[in-house]
């Protein structure tokens, strides 16, 4: 058995990747006598060998969210989401098998006309979190470099409009003055225009001394922040398999998230929820959670148990099972 696996491209390389997949990849597959094509790049070449099993993994649900589309700050961004939606649906309809990272994703694809019989729900995993003697050392290093107080709320996500940073900031501004726990935002400014808007909103609300932005951290530094955080708030408008949410839960963070799917699908009763489109709802949920230490302690206990259901080993086994089934039954599975 031989296969070609294509991962999701970065935005700047997407056009080049699509051209390469369309022109060069089919010839390469024939030369290598490859019989399996697996892609999470949402693109299926039109000229794959007839005997090759094609598996498309759908990793991005933002193109299917009206809220995400409305959140886009540019016409270019809106056009990109609409184009990506068409490409995902087209590739999923043509593929022999489709991997959906959540039940929510599966339901969306079925509504878009993808045959339910070929959609397999295989969620992403989360790395186990072993005890770390280095955690305190890493945290001290972070505190020397950034403004990180003893108690803080945390949101980790790259800066895209559908990540909903601005509503979280506005909700923070509504909190009772007695709540003095600062908010730390961590993420790379992939959409620099949106990142600038977020920074301006913090300044407009005079929250520069209470909301701190860290433009990206590696896994080890993030782990230390997760462990030390008082509360993790996750207001994203749409996800597929919400890895950051699972990471926070695995580290024992008390978590607040939007009640929009698929967050409840993954968090269940191990976390608390709010309306991600409502600034007052976010503020009320934060205030209620910080005022309920018993529930926060319960979430610290339940989060890791819930997150342990999702492992990369399980993800890999289930993806490989699609290959094995293909080998046993042939392409018509």
Describe the structure.
With about 325 residues, the chain is α/β, with parallel strands linked by helices. A 6-stranded parallel β-sheet has the order 8-7-6-9-10-11, sandwiched between helices. Strands 1-2-3-4-5 form a 5-stranded parallel β-sheet, sandwiched between helices. α5 packs across α8, α6 runs parallel beside α7 and α9 packs across α12. The model has no long low-confidence stretch (mean pLDDT about 90).
List how many beta strands DSSP finds: 11
Summed over residues and divided by their number, the pLDDT gives a mean of 89
Secondary-structure-derived class? alpha/beta
Low-confidence stretches: none
Residue share in β-strands: 5-15%
What is the global morphology?
globular
Summarize the structure.
The chain is α/β, with parallel strands linked by helices and 333 residues long.
Give short descriptive properties of this protein:
333 residues; alpha/beta; 6-stranded parallel beta sheet; 5-stranded parallel beta sheet; 13 helices; 11 strands; 13% strand
Question: How is the secondary structure organized here?
Answer:
Layout: E1 3-6, H1 14-32, E2 36-39, E3 53-58, H2 66-71, H3 75-94, E4 97-100, H4 103-111, E5 119-121, H5 135-145, E6 153-156, H6 165-174, E7 183-186, H7 192-204, E8 211-214, H8 219-228, E9 231-234, H9 243-250, E10 255-258, H10 263-267, E11 272-274, H11 279-290, H12 293-307, H13 312-329
Parallel strand pairs: 1-2, 2-3, 3-4, 4-5, 6-7, 6-9, 7-8, 9-10, 10-11
